[in-house]
Amino acid sequence: VQLVESGGGLVQSGGSLRLSCAASGFTFSNYFMRWYRQAPGKEREFVATIAGAGDSIYYSDSVKGRFTISRDNAKKTVYLQMNSLKPEDTAMYYCNARVPFDAWGQGTQVTVSS
């Protein structure tokens, strides 16, 4: 099982980024995929999740209305479109699959300047 995140970077407050997570080693379309984030000195927190068919989606209250999770099962990739970014969104972002053990990528850094 391998998860590889990309798309992070430095952006100004109010800007946008699109994160990608490429998956391999398991039947991607059978599993929920999740995004988490971890800011320095804080615990890892849930951001969003999407069902295997893409028909069930949940967001944390802190990102609802600004972030959009989606997936392309043919490409075995999950995305996180982040709009209206705030400095408090600064964190390392990780994708996750429970297959059934918890599989994590290496993370991609998002930094939002004020």
Structural write-up:
The protein has 114 residues and is an all-beta fold. The protein is 0% helix and 54% strand. The protein has strands spanning 2-6, 9-12, 17-24, 33-38, 45-50, 57-59, 67-72, 77-82, 91-98, 102-104, 108-113. The termini are far apart.
Task: Describe the structure using short key phrases.
114 residues; globular; mainly beta; 0% helix; 54% strand; 11 strands; 4-stranded antiparallel beta sheet; 7-stranded mixed beta sheet
Q: Brief description of this entry?
A:
The protein is an all-beta fold.
Helix-strand topology string: EEEEEEEEEEE
Q: Name the poorly predicted regions.
A: none
What is the number of beta strands? 11
- Helix tally equals 0
Give the end-to-end Cα distance, rounded to a whole number of Å.
37 Å
The fraction of residues assigned to DSSP E strands is: over 45%
Indicate the multimeric state: single chain
Summarize model confidence as the mean pLDDT. Answer: 97
Structural class: mainly beta
Helix share, percent: under 10%
Using only CA atoms, what is the Rg? 13 Å
Give a topology summary.
Layout: E1 2-6, E2 9-12, E3 17-24, E4 33-38, E5 45-50, E6 57-59, E7 67-72, E8 77-82, E9 91-98, E10 102-104, E11 108-113
Parallel strand pairs: 2-11
Antiparallel strand pairs: 1-3, 3-8, 4-5, 4-9, 5-6, 7-8, 9-10, 9-11
